[in-house]
Amino acid sequence: MMHRKFKADQIFTGKGMAPAGYVLITSPEGVIIDLVPGQDAGENIEYTGHLLTPGFINAHCHLELSHLKNQVPPGTGLINFLLDVVGKRDFKPEAIQAAIQLAEKEMYDAGIVAVGDISNTTDTVETKKHSRITWTNFIEVLSFSDEKATERLNEYGDVLKKFRSLEENIQGIDHIFRSNLVPHAPYSISPLSFQMINEATAGQVISIHNQETPDEDELYKTGKGNFIRFFNFFGKTVSPFPVTGKSSLRSVLPFFTKGQTILLIHNTFMPEEDRVFAQEYAADNGLDIVYCFCPNANLYIENTLPPVHQFLAEKKHIVLGTDSLSSNYQLSIAEEINTLHKYFPDIPLETMLQWATLNGAMALKREDTLGSFSKGKKPGIISLDIDLKPKRLL
Ligand SMILES: [Zn+2]
Fold this sequence. Notes:
By secondary structure, the protein is of the alpha/beta class. It has 2 domains: about 1-55 and about 370-394, Urease, subunit C, domain 1 (Roll), CATH 2.30.40; about 55-370, TIM Barrel, CATH 3.20.20.140. Helices cover about 35% and strands about 20% of the residues. Helix 9 (about 270-285) links the parallel strand 12 and strand 13 (about 290-295). Helix 1 runs parallel beside helix 7 and helix 12 crosses helix 13 (about 350-365). The longest helix is centred in the middle third of the chain and has 21 residues, at about 150-170. The radius of gyration is 21 Å and the shape is globular. The mean pLDDT is about 95. Bound molecules: zinc ion.
C-alpha cells in the first residue's frame, strides 16, 4: 500500500498549526496515519501549497432550497425574506432536484465533508443517497398552533421515517447518515409543539434558528412588531404565541430538558444577558449549547453580523454554517471564513479554521472520524491557497 505524504507552507491540524516542515501521512483513501517532522517522512512527498486543513463541517444548510439561488433580493430584512421564500412555490420538481444535485457537488468540491442539513421535505433524499458527504438531517418542524401540533408532528414524523428508512436500507449508513426532528424557530413553533419535539429528541443533536432579527424578541416581549405581517400571510391577525415579557430565547429554551445538544443558528441579535442565561440554563439542565454563525447569510438578509468577538471572549462553542442558497451566493465554509476575516481581521485564521473543522465535528458528534488530523480519522484533506480558495485532495 502506497501512503500519500503531504507537505504545505502550513498544516492546520484541527486545533492549531503543526510545527514548520511537518508532513502529513495518510492511506491512499485519506485515513490519517501520522504527522511527522519532514526528516522522518521519507520520500515521495507532495508539496500542496499554502495551507492544508481537515475537511470543513457545514453546521447549518438548507440543501432543499438550492433552487432559490438569486431568487430572493438581498438586504430586505428577515420578515420580507421569509415572505419571499414562502411565496415562491412555482418551481418544477426537476428544477428543484437539479439545483440540489448541483449544490451538493459545490459543497463537496469546496472541501465540505459533513453537513447539518435542514430538511422540511424529502426532496434531498435522492441526492443524499449517492453523496460522499456525511449528513445529519435535521427534519425541521414548523407548527404554529397547539391545536394542530399532533397533526403537524405526524406529518414531519413521516418525513423523518423516509430518511430513517434510508438508514436501514444502506448497510453501515448510520456512520454517515443520521436524522432527527428539530424546531424551526421561536416564531414558528407553539408551546405544545415545543414540548412534543423535546420528548422526541432526548440526547440528540438539534438546531433552532435564534435571534436572527430584533423582531423575534419583540414578538415574545409584547406580542407585536413585524412578525404580525408574517402571520398575516398564514391568515392570522395576532401572534399565535404567548406573550412572555421575555426574549424569544428565554421564552423557548426552557422547553428543552432532555440532554440535547442544541445548535443556536445565527445569534445575530443575541444580547449578553441571553448568552449568560443560555449557559446557565444549559449547565443546570444537562444541555450543550453550540453557537453557529452564518455570516454571509446575515449580511444577505439583515446586512449585519453577530458580535463575534464577545462570543469568542466568552469561550463559546462556535461553529460555522452557510445557510441556504436563498440567502447566500455559494455554499462554501471557506467563503464564510473569508467574510469573517474581512470584518474581524484580528481573529486568527487558526481560530476560525477550528470553528470550521473540529468544533463543527464535535457539535454534530462526528469527531470520531472527522474534524482533525488525528491518527485513524478520515477527515478529508483540503488544500487552501493564499486567498483561502479550497481544493479537495482526498
Ligand atoms: Zn437557516
